Amino acid sequence: MSIIHRIKCGNVNCHIIENGISGILVDTGRRKYAERVIEACKAYHVKLLVLTHGHFDHAENAAQIANTLCIPIGMSEKDCDLIKSNENQVLSAKTFLGKIVLAASLKDFKTHAVQEFKPDILLKNGNSLLDYGVNASIIALPGHTEGSIGVDVDGRHLIVGDALMNMFYPTVSMLYHDRKSMLESAEKISGLGSRTIHFGHGGPKANRGWVR
């Protein structure tokens, strides 16, 4: 059985999936937290970095961490345009709180840049991560971004990035590139049944019906 370790990087979470032998890092946090994440990875024999999506608060340290640990980076090909600029996929919001978060995010997109890198592995729905020592697979969760993905672990845990959010309260993603796809992804998560959901923002919660 795998264990999920949450690494708090300000209001953003990174997660390490490990089974005592191997580990996988999911997301990287902002630049100022790079050393914290690297040190945590060293304790769990991390062999792969998976990015749930290309926004800077989840991917800003990808190149540095991968180079330091000598591990490959995996992400969806559909988010590779975000490496060059997070403004390459337009975001929208519907709720009052979502619009506040959107305004802050758009401001940050202009001042934060992801150090450019080329992903070593282009991850797709259904890809197994067993080759990296962990019983986990990739699930496509588009909507927040075109290439948002999650990591399904042991059929018990699901790391969702920003496909769902728990920034203020657990909900569907407050920000989205494609609202219809985002809601479909939330329904897809609900359909997985019993899972502990690990968010990119906020603490874990039990899976439930997310779209009302």
Write the layout of secondary structure elements.
Blueprint lengths: L2 E7 L2 E7 L4 E4 L7 H9 L3 E5 L5 H4 L2 H8 L3 E3 L5 H4 L11 H16 L9 E2 L13 E5 L8 E5 L3 E5 L2 E2 L5 E2 L6 H13 L4 E4 L5 E2 L6
Parallel strand pairs: 3-4, 4-5, 5-6, 9-12
Antiparallel strand pairs: 1-2, 2-3, 7-8, 8-9, 10-11, 12-13
Task: Give an overview of the whole structure.
The protein is of the alpha/beta class and 212 residues long. Helices cover 25% and strands 25% of the residues. β12 (196-199) and β13 (205-206) form a beta hairpin. The termini are far apart. The relative contact order is 0.17.
Summarize the structure.
This protein has 212 residues and is an alpha/beta fold.
Strand content: 25-35%
Tell me the Rg in angstroms. Answer: 15 Å
Number of strands: 13
Mean pLDDT: 96
How are strands sequenced across the largest beta sheet?
1-2-3-4-5-6
Q: Indicate the percent of residues in helices.
A: 25-40%
**Alpha-beta content class:** alpha/beta
| Spans where pLDDT lies below 50 across 5 or more residues | none
SS summary, helix count: 6
Cα-to-Cα separation, first versus last residue:
33 Å
Shape: globular
Features:
single chain, 212 residues, alpha/beta, six-stranded mixed β-sheet, five-stranded mixed β-sheet, 6 helices, 13 strands
